[in-house]
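Standup notes
- HV: blocked on the assembly model, inputs below
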Amino acid sequence: MSTVENLPFDPTDEGSQEMAPRGSAGAAELLRELGATLRMSEAEVAELVQEDPSEDQTMIINMGPQHPSTHGVLRLMLELEGETVLRTKPVIGYLHTGMEKTGEDLTYLQGPTNVTRMDYASPLFNELAFSLTTEKLLGIDEDIPERAQWIRVLMTELNRITSHLLFLATNGMDVGAVSMMVWGWRDRERGLRVLEAVTGLRMNHNYIRPGGVAADLPDGWRDTVLGFLDYLPESLDEYDVLLTEQPIYRERLQGVGVITAEEAVALGATGPILRSTGVPWDLRREMPYLTYDQLDFDVIVGSYGDCFDRYAIRLHEIRESMKIVRQVLEKMPRGDYRIQDKKVTPPPRARIDESMEALIHHFKIFTEGFKVPEGEAYCAVESPRGELGCYIVSDGSSKPYRMHIRGPSFVNLQTLPHMMRGGLIADAVAVISSVDPIMGEVDR
Amino acid sequence: MAWDLSKGLEGLEHNFLTGTLEEFVKWARRMSVMPATFGLACCAIEMMGAGGPHYDLARFGMETFRASPRQADLMIVAGRVSQKMAPVLRQIYDQMMEPKWVISMGVCASTGGMFNNYALVQGVDQVVPVDAYAPGCPPGPETLIHAINTLHEKIRDGHLTRRPGEGLGLHVEQKDGQRSDQPVTLTTAGSR
Amino acid sequence: MADDVEVPEDGAPSDEAAAEAAPEPELRFGVPVTRSRGQEVLHPSRDELVSLVRMLRDDEGYLMCLDVTGVDYLTYEADRGLPEGIAPERFEVVVTLISHRARQRLRLRVQVPEDDPTCPSIFDVHPGAEAMEREVFDMFGIRFEGHPDLTRILMPEDWEGHPLRKDHAIGRIPVQFKAPQDAR
């Protein structure tokens, strides 16, 4: 039970991942840091770095991984001159769970259980991406019943609402509006009640599975969902009064963490970050999946690329999601909640008593798993954070040979050094909060 | 009079003055436990939910999550502890002042959970001594509050004036999803 | 990869028939292409990768690199879906690009041999690939030439081995499930 003082090395040292002071960073590294993203030539970068302060005025400090504002276990190494942030290096990996390796060891039916814990603020999206990819490999993606698709839309949009409420709560708290934290959780609880009524769990639902969804909507679901939808607009108006119209909040977020469209595209940013720069890219509109082509909703686009735009985009996306859910309530068809393919979906429990075949199918699906034809596929959905993709390579057995999730936060984090450059430390907190990373999908 | 403090408060012979004083100290300790922010993964969201208005930790005096471990008494390890995070966890635990307690929230913190692989420490009790294990994936706020209340009961009973470095190791039951018309029981009958 | 047309060594009829039946690999942007579940997949070699990606970005509108990942085909028994003329290697680096204008994705699969696990980095073309290439290095041990900072990103610095390789164990510890004890 020795304390860390007794060890001959510093166990929290990250070795070569640590950031070296600017003076010892070579010109090539600095070119890469700025020039590549901004597409500058070597001469232009040399001019930019000539305004170097002398080395003893800069300080490299460490923020995290245990820090209330880093949204999970993100470690930031900041090079500061006074309070101004010059360079940032995010160090991640503190939540690496080996989920992709575990995914190779679990069957396709168990896969959503594993994948759902990556982006734990919006778990249904991970399950959806995995299920869509599995269905594409199985070749049944055209045959998923209508009702199953509409249920998936309903649940994922409700999840988008709860995820954005979480963002509003944590964003408010990080900037200092602690009431927002309390209000955001109050409203999120109402949303979690709806999710719990349908899926049985408040989080990490394992509800969307290859073939459809795990269970049908319960009786009285319309009233439950409508109760939530009728309750929410008043809260959103309260947030507008508390945050949007408030001068302190605007001061803290407008003009902070600005990123241009070219930079965002070069860095691979998707989701609200890309939309805040003016690029109207939303997978639900541009490359529709499920039944989004039959739904009428707007894609919210910002113009300045700053933190305030990202906040406003997410606030309005809640309203758009509510619009979508109301349309789903009208259009929900009757039918099966999962595909009636005996090889893929387990039989209903009642039939197991009657039919030997059903019992055998149930047994095989739950122990060995269903076999998926060989090949590879990539499917992506628009999660609250950006493009969440799943790439599966199958070798014909019942477990994925390689399962990779393209986590949007992992790629979005690369925009952090760019957005924080030249800002203050307090702005750093606001910027991290506006990127809204979820470390579960960053580290997987 | 033997003032043997090596066993914490157990070694004292009490007269009527110091007995009451001890009760007062235990009351103060359990009524204002301050958790340190150690939310790692999904369980952190449920921990924040426990601090939210629905499940209100403030009624137990615990809504202030201290960012600095020097000011905290309780570390709720909420989430999966990876190999890279384990030394950081130990460092934060060492920075906390005695008396300090640890609740291992969730199955990943208690045993490694569903991730029995190379990347996770299979149970945070490999790194720090744990006083209460709260099961669930994630444990809802009700289970977390049950674990916290069990901890408070143990502080009140005097069981937690233990030697530093040893965890109590209580296994708490999962209490989520109980309907509000059924009372949630907070007994510790049958516990150590 | 130039057009691969098999030339029969002697004039035997069976070889001529075989030569006519051997398909030319379909080329797109100069590299062999296949379709996988409705998605176009290109198969450049390691040397062609950077120039192909650059050309796709500049001329064809594939402005964003969505994903760079790796696959270890060590224990893969089935058909890998490679076109004619591409020799399967142990590792593959899979790059996914997207063209917003055409609303289309494109996948590139690059074969990387086991005895020389290196691949050129596309960082100069897509700076967003930086973290993803570090992850592939960390998980598979594939070195990216030209990457500014090729260090471990997910595992601790001193970790030995590359976890997602098939010869790296999952690290499971045996668990014995016992009934709950009463004296708790």
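- HV (later): unblocked. Chain A has 19 helices and eight strands. Residues 146-175 of chain A form the longest helix (30 residues).
- Next: hand off to the docking folks.
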